[in-house]
Amino acid sequence: MTTPLFDTIALIGIGLIGSSIAREIRHKHLARRVVVSTRSEETLRRAAELRLGDAYTTSAAEAVHEADLVIVSVPVGASGAVAAAIAGALKPGAIVTDVGSTKASVIAQMQPHLPAHVHFIPGHPIAGTEYSGPDAGFIGLFRSRWCILTPLPDTDEAAKAQLRRFWEALGSNVDEMDPGHHDKVLAIVSHLPHIIAYNIVGTADDLETVTESDVIKYSASGFRDFTRLAASDPTMWRDICLHNKEAILEMLARFSEDLAYLQRAIRWSDGDKLFDLFTRTRAIRRSIVEAGQDTAAPDFGRHANDPVE
Ligand SMILES: NC(=O)C1=CN([C@@H]2O[C@H](COP(=O)(O)OP(=O)(O)OC[C@H]3O[C@@H](n4cnc5c(N)ncnc54)[C@H](O)[C@@H]3O)[C@@H](O)[C@H]2O)C=CC1
Ligand SMILES: O=C(O)C(=O)Cc1ccc(O)cc1
C-alpha cells in the first residue's frame, strides 16, 4: 500500500466532482481519513450510504478543523459562503483548494475570508459530465484530463507541489495559469458551448412548426450532442454565467459577429466562404483527435453506485 499524500482531507460539497475525488482518494489510499461535508442532510446521508468518507457533517467548519487538505466542490456562487464558514476552523498550514469552473470570481469570493496561515491554491479539473450529485461520480473521471491551478502570487512552492502530486495521483496533467487567462480560455472552450447548447435546445422547444415529438423522434446526432450539454446542472451553469460574466459576454459578442458572417454567406449563396470556414474548422477537430483529447470521459462506472470498498 502506498503512503497517503495527506493525513486528513475534507471534502466540502459531494456532488459529481466531490464524490469522484472521494472515490479516487479511497481507491488510491491518498488520505488516512476523509471527512465529507455538504449542506443538505439528504445528500450527506447518500454520501454515507455510498461510503464516500470516514466521517460526515453538515457543518463545513467541523469538517475542516483537522484537515491538511480542504477541497471545496460547490457551485461557484457558493464559494464565498463556504470560505466564510470554514475560515475560523482551518488548521495552520492546511492547503485549501477548489474545483470551480470560474477562477477570478472564486478567488475574489474566498480569499478575503481565508487566514494567512493557510495555503489557498485555486484549481479547476477540466473533466466532467452532464450528471450531478453524489451518485454521478466515478473513478477515472480525471484520468488524462487537465487540471488547471491558478495560484496567487507568492504561493508556497511546497504546498503547490503537494497539490500537484494529488491531482497527478488522480491521473490528471497539471497546468498553471493566471486566473484571468483561465476565465477567457474556459469562456470559449466550455462556457460558450454550454450556452449555445442551452439556447439551441430552447429554440427547438419554442418552435411552433416543429413539435416536441418531432424533435425527440428525428433528432440527428448533432442535436443530440447539444441536448447532452443542455442537460447539465442548472444551478452550476447559472452560477458560471453570473461569475464569468465579462469573459462570456466578450466571447458571445465575437460569436454573434461570426454567426452574422455565416448567415450572410448562406443568404448570398457564397459557397466559397462556407467551404473555407468548414475546411478550417475541420482541421481543428483533427488536431484535437491527434492530441488524444477527443474521447469523452470513460463511461465505465459512471453509474456505479456501489459503496466504495
Ligand atoms: N459538473 C462538471 O462537469 C464540472 C463541475 N466543476 C465545478 O465543480 C463544482 C461542483 O460541481 P458538481 O460536483 O458538478 O456539482 P453537483 O451539483 O454535483 O454538487 C454540488 C455539491 O455542492 C453542495 N452545495 C451546494 N451549495 C452548497 C453550499 N452553499 N454549501 C455547501 N455545500 C453546497 C451540494 O449539496 C452538492 O453536494 C462547481 O463549482 C462546478 O463549476 C468543475 C469541472 C467539471
Ligand atoms: O460534460 C461536458 O462535456 C463538460 O464540458 C464538463 C465540464 C463542465 C464544466 C467544467 O468546468 C469542466 C468540464
TrEMBL record:
GO terms for molecular function: NAD+ binding; prephenate dehydrogenase (NAD+) activity; prephenate dehydrogenase (NADP+) activity. InterPro entries: 6-PGluconate_DH-like_C_sf, NAD(P)-bd_dom_sf, PDH_C, PDH_N, Preph/Arog_dehydrog, Prephen_DH. It catalyses: prephenate + NAD(+) = 3-(4-hydroxyphenyl)pyruvate + CO2 + NADH. Keywords: Amino-acid biosynthesis, Aromatic amino acid biosynthesis, NAD, Oxidoreductase, Tyrosine biosynthesis. Residues 7-296 form the Prephenate/arogenate dehydrogenase domain. One of its GO terms (biological process) is tyrosine biosynthetic process. The keyword NAD applies. Its EC number is 1.3.1.12. It is an enzyme of class 1 (oxidoreductase). Pfam families: PDH_C, PDH_N. Pathway: Amino-acid biosynthesis; L-tyrosine biosynthesis; (4-hydroxyphenyl)pyruvate from prephenate (NAD(+) route): step 1/1. The keyword Amino-acid biosynthesis applies. Belongs to the prephenate/arogenate dehydrogenase family. This is prephenate dehydrogenase. It comes from Xaviernesmea rhizosphaerae.
